[in-house]
Inverse folding.
């Protein structure tokens, strides 16, 4: 993975964009740290299912799941607050332009900073540090999702090419995987 400083060294005029997935992942990890801290080190089966439940975006939850989240939030108020903060991040990405997004981003940052939840405060500092790169999404509406997808295909090809001892075999496997060629079956004996 290329670091942000590496990008600045190699492509000094490029505008970096930190995509939604990575920001969301950072928020979810902080929420999970709050959950572990509040619920204690011992994790029962119920608490693990709470972790899975909290990873579902609120808009995709059915009524039963929403009720479970409300019950979990009552039992563990810090976890519930952290969950609402993670859900508030979606409002940043629902904005139509950078000015609206910046306003919503600043409100989220303020909430995280005042939250008295140390993992969420750490996220707030990180978000503030990379605010420009996060909001750069609104200028081009481009992310590295395509590159991540291609990299995933290449990594799968790399695993498939283990039997090949040369770079040529590896590169051939990458071309075959990325090109999505469809081969017609050829009978062995006509």
């Amino acid at each position: 993975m290329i670091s942000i400083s590496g990008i600045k060294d190699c492509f000094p005029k490029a505008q970096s964009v930190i995509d939604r997935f990575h920001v969301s992942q950072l928020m979810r990890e902080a929420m999970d740290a709050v959950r572990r801290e509040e619920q204690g080190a011992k994790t029962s089966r119920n608490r693990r299912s709470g972790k899975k439940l909290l990873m579902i975006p609120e808009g995709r939850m059915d009524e039963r799941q929403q009720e479970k989240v409300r019950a979990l939030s009552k039992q563990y108020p810090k976890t519930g607050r952290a969950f609402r903060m993670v859900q508030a991040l979606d409002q940043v990405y629902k904005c139509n332009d950078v000015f609206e997004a910046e306003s919503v981003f600043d409100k989220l940052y303020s909430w995280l900073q005042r939250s008295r939840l140390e993992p969420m405060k750490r996220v707030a500092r990180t978000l503030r540090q990379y605010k420009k790169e996060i909001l750069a999404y609104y200028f081009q509406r481009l992310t590295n999702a395509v590159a991540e997808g291609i990299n995933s295909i290449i990594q799968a090809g790399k695993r498939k090419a283990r039997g090949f001892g040369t770079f040529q075999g590896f590169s051939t496997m990458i071309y075959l995987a990325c090109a999505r060629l469809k081969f017609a079956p050829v009978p062995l004996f006509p």
